[in-house]
Amino acid sequence: MLQVQNIEKYYGNKNNITKALDRVSFDVAAGEFLAIMGASGSGKTTLLNCISTIDTVSAGRILLDGICVEDLSDAELAKFRREKLGFVFQDYNLLDTLTIEENIGLALSLNHTDPKTVQEQVREKARQLGIVEVLEKFPYQVSGGQKQRAACARAMVAGQSLLLADEPTGALDSRSSKNLLEIMELMNRDLKATILMVTHDAYSASYAGRVLFLKDGRVFNELLRRDRNRPVFYHEILDVLAALGGDVSDVI
Amino acid sequence: MCLLRWGVMSVTLFKLSLRGAGRQAKDYLVYFVTVVMAAALLYSFNSLVFSREISVLSQSMEMLPVMILLADLVVVGVFGWLVAYATRFMLLRRSRELGTYLLIGLENRQMARLFFLENLAVGSFALGLGTVLGILLYQVFRAVILALFGMPYHFSFGFSLPAAGLTAVSFALIYLHALRRSRRYIRRVKIHDLIYSDRHNENAAIHTGKWRRRIFSASLVLGAAGTLLLMAGDALLGIIGAACVLLFLFGFFLSFSSGVPAYFDRRPALKYGGQNLLIFRTLTAKLSTMGVLMAVISTIFTATLISEGTGLVFRGLFQGRAAEISCFDLYISVAEEWRNHDAYLDFIEENIPVEKSVLYPVYVSGSSQVVDYLTSCTVYYSLDFDQDPILRYSDYAALRSIAGYRTAELEPGQYLIHCMTYLENPMKQYTGLLTLGDFTLAPGTVYTEHFHQNYIEANGRGYILVVPDEAAKGLAVHHKAYAAKTVQPVSPEQYAALENLHNGIADWTEPQDSITAKANEEAAVASQTALFVFPLYYLALALTMTAATILTIQQLSESEQYKRQFRLLHKLGMDRREMCRALRVQFTFYYAMPAVPSLLIGVPFILNLCKAPEPGVMVGSSSPAAIIGAALGIFFLIYGIYITLAYTGLKRNVLPEAD
Predict the structure, then answer these.
(1) ipTM of the complex
(2) Which chain B residues are within 8 Å of A82, Cβ to Cβ?
(3) Cβ–Cβ of A53/B659 closer than 8 Å?
(4) A111, B284: Cβ pair inside 8 Å?
(5) What's the pLDDT tens digit per position in A123-145?
(6) How do B476-486 and A218-224 pair as beta strands?
């Protein structure tokens, strides 16, 4: 589904160049749950921004469903984002002026979905994510976990093929984090959602099927969960982090 | 040591104040520009108060300072409200920054001083800049007034110390009022309240959603009823209508944030269609705490439109009346049965060189067929003539020559009609034969030049019938009149002497003579225009600027929220074109909402006011349509400048860069 081919990203001017991504390549298959881990400054958010077309790459190609995002015009990029990509951010990024229902419906509205069916689709997604009872409320009236589930619903409601999550549990307490991760797991398993999650939290990453480790802008290691249970996978992730060096303090 | 510390502290405070003032001027540029313009307006109008050149233009211009000072009082009040509102607004927006000052050890007293100095710096700078601009603006006003009096304008740079002093006093009052309130607030405020001010919920005036929705529905009904009553044209109904519309304004704006979502909630298809969701939600979020302010702004706009419209109606009234009666350089009419013109003619012969003149009788026909016809088919009223007024053709020809009009031919067996413009159409359709003794005459050409036919006993009331000289023989004389083309315009002294002559011979129990001189009428129009129109426009300008500034400050202050919103929408796949459109529609609604109710009240009010003068005055450039067009044009020109400034500023700040 997603092919990242030798991408590089440089910042700065010719006297002071920072290499944020250095020949990064990997593929994500449809229905996969991939976590990208790394310390601060390792390039994981830059990578996510490039995939989400919010930022551009300096070299290399990113293909989603066979479409090279670099070849798209501004208008096509906007269409691409609203049709193919769903976002979940650490700070929820819900609009304060809209109710939870309207926040989720906004994604459909932007996609020019038939307005008569919007409410029905929103309710269906809310039911799957367990937030039907807060649909009428405004973001400031609900908990962080409910907000994040609303963000997940918004990211999926328009049938987007890839869900991009940037530290989705960063602002949540441990109970809400667990709840959200279980929901993401459910979305991946039952709803066949393809998820790419950036995190520096080993516990969050242990819910993924595969973990990519970034260090200094390069892919340092890759771990596959296969048939192992989550606690075992979690310890394996911690081992890799230890090998990466000095980032155990980031781990819960 | 202590002195040194205080010195260091003062310098730091001073630097902080200056930096704050600079940032304030930059962040709230629209507000700063308005304050500069306020100073410019105050200075330029105050310069008119103290100008000797202007006050000696005419005797009645001595009233101008009084009128402007009265307007000054209102304008200082309006700008005082603006500055107080904006100061308080900025103070609350900067709560966190001010809280930090307290946190690092600044005392409330010192912080109040800091804020005072900062605003003093902004106010003083605006006053200085505004005074310089005011000097230029005064030249514009001076040129307009001199043009009104037909005097040549020469640029002469001048600085009026008394005007600058009065402006400075006005500014001091405006700022001291605003800063006294802020000082009181800062002295009492606690660190916690400042640091966590953004966590306080804003207060909505009506809390219960159910009540709001009921008020919303009731306000819409009141608005519709009020507009219909205003359009009815009756004075009493108009007052009731205005009251309904005022209730609608407050009810509508206070309940909008509940009524509109309730409406959309019942219509989900409409809610999620296009960009409706974003637009109505942004508006309701804004209006939920701005209801009273929006209603006040709408009321201010109404007052502005009424001020502008009233100014234009006055101008039209003065000009329309004067244009009609100043077609002859000198005109005197006396009631035949009481006096003759001898005393006037003797004076004119001795004192006023005349190029050509005519002394003539105005007859009445003995019937009222044309009066009756006009009364039946148009808005016409006649106080002096219950019979049709008649003029001999030879006198008419002489009068046309004196007025400088082309010759009018009278065909045999016909009579001519000379009427005011507003009677032209019915007169052209009039086919009645006129029987005078042995003569039966058919209607001929209709002429409509100004002919001294409006509100005083002159060449007929609105119209006169011109007949062959022989047909007028034996008719009763209504009054006699004298018209002349003078070599020089009649001077104010000559006019005053003629009036004194009249006062000397007048019997006040009987009909009075009428003396009009073109030069005198033109001076009167100029004075009246300056006296009424200038203060009303002064007021209108101040009101529009104040209301538009507050709307713009409110809009621009939320740049950060808008920025976050559009950044998210960008990520969600909304393209820039759609974002521009959403912002534009949002803007249109936001700025149209307080203006539309004002139009609903203002336009019918002005239309009714246009009907107040006698018929035939409010025509041409003073017709109701032209007055409405001009009033709206001026209003939307100023309003449009603010909207454009706010829109371009916000668009630049909040929309993400193109990918």
Answers:
(1) 0.73
(2) 572-574
(3) yes
(4) no
(5) 998 998 889 999 988 888 888 88
(6) unpaired
